[in-house]
Amino acid sequence: MKQFNGKVLFLDRSDINTDEIIPARYLTEISKEALKAFLLEDLELKGFDVKKDIEPSQVVISRANFGCGSSREHAPWAFEVNDINLVIAESFARIFKQNMFNCGMMAVELPAETIDEIFNMFKGKDTTLTTDLTKNVFVLKAGSEQKEIPFTISGFDRALVEADGWVGYADKHY
Amino acid sequence: MGKTIAEKIFDSHQVDNPFGDIHVIRLDSVFCHEITTPVAINDLVSRGMDRVFDPKKIKAVIDHVTPAKDSKTALQGKILRDWARRQGIMDFFDIGKNGVCHAIFPEKGFVRPGYTIIMGDSHTCTHGAFGAFAAGVGTTDLEVGILKGVCAFHYPHSIKVVVDGSLPAGVFAKDVILAIIGKLGVNGATNKVIEFEGSVVDSMSMEARMTLCNMAIEAGGTCGICVPDMTTVDYLWDFIKDDYKDKQAALEDFKKWTADKDAVYDQVIHMDAATLSPMVTFGYKPDQVKEVKEMEGTPVDQVYIGSCTNGRLEDLRIAAQILDGKTISPNVRAIVSPATPDIFKKALDEGIIKIFMDAGFCVTNPTCGACLGMSNGVLAEGEVCASTTNRNFNGRMGKGGMVHLMSPATAAETAVAGVITNSGLYKAQGGAR
Lengths: 174, 433
Prior knowledge:
Chain A is an alpha/beta fold. Chain A has helices spanning 18-21, 50-53, 74-80, 94-102, 112-122, 155-162, 166-173; strands at 6-11, 59-62, 86-89, 106-109, 128-132, 137-142, 145-150. In chain A, strand 6 (137-142) and strand 7 form a beta hairpin.
């Protein structure tokens, strides 16, 4: 099972699409590793520095409709090879979310108010997140500030995380 | 309680219901192209599971970059080609026979009402035009589909969009779907199927219905679906005539994929066709739509007519009607990409290709190419493209480029004027602005 803990990268915008996550010009790669240097290359977002902000991060927190657009699994792969296995957002595009769990990664939705609260409290601060998958709780920490945030994950999504993805699950069951 | 079309298809294909509303369904077809399939093939090989569930139910095409533009794209093609040969996949379309997946697969009769189809391509929703459930998926879902012939989905919720009345002159399926996306928003249909109904949809050709369903994903929709009718039967007749005694019998059979009167929808949207006008996008999201007249005069550098949205014969005919006897503005370059070899040949026979060339268009081979900025018409930084494609994301057709989505008619008008417009079309048809 993958790890879902670490430093948080805040992407404060809705509708971040798969072309921004990994542009189509890199879809000619056939290895996941080759995508590593190009994650979020086309994302233009105030305060986001593609050269500095990705390397130290293991968790992304964003707004609504994250991962919209193309079906390319290169988007989750580009996160995966950068050791980012968890994206938390207000909502996700269907294919992106399924692709994340299909790879044994997590795409977790939190209510808009909770996302707002997280951005208000932690954005711009050096923040780490710990995932407790037995209690279904995220713990966010920045200096002396700390917040516990409960989350829900469906039985199927949990099974995919535990099986390290859909291929492992499907091969066992079908 | 009655059922929607998608619910009927799911219930007839269910294999398992492992958790809550997760339904594992049997697949009638798995479509593959060279961008998203090679990683699945390599993974199957590395797991020692290099096999397919049924070679007859797998269809493959090289379409995104073709002919190959470099060593990397050549390798992607080679992996798909070698795999198709190794696995005995007879319906593989290689260079010379290949076209844009969502145009060539329907053209070959591979999509039927009631079918379940997945492909590693978000615009797979196009095939719902035939009354099928067709969904774009990632490479892992594709890999399991290839191996096991199944895929897992949430049990489908549906939105019904009813378009009644008759379309004003100069308004086409592309304008209708852009208006719908503008109304729903880019995530208004997430996790939902959009059923298109109403007299306007009933009178549409299969080509126009495919344009409509193609962009369901731009509102977040899993699939767009049209009710199968005699237009569907006519389109498929050559492929199904041995299965039915006559067209009426085929229609009766197809009718089982019609929603029940008391089917339950999450939302029902009614649109009056008479209120619609030609539409164009203005930002980096497909729901940022305006009427063309609001954008009139916006200069463009390139005009592109093609793609799985609007590269079919009907689209080329509409554009050629406008371009006949005219030349494009000296300030623009224009590209037309017929979506399949068959469309290309028919366009040649009808004199359409000559009209495009005389007008100053570059005619490319069938390919997805420029739509996603991979080849055959990539934009330079700061350039603007008037395009009949489906996505206007920042950098989509080339880093730093701006894309305005529109119908083939508006694109042709724009090519002649060098600025976004459709005034000529209105004048030609005597319509009022």
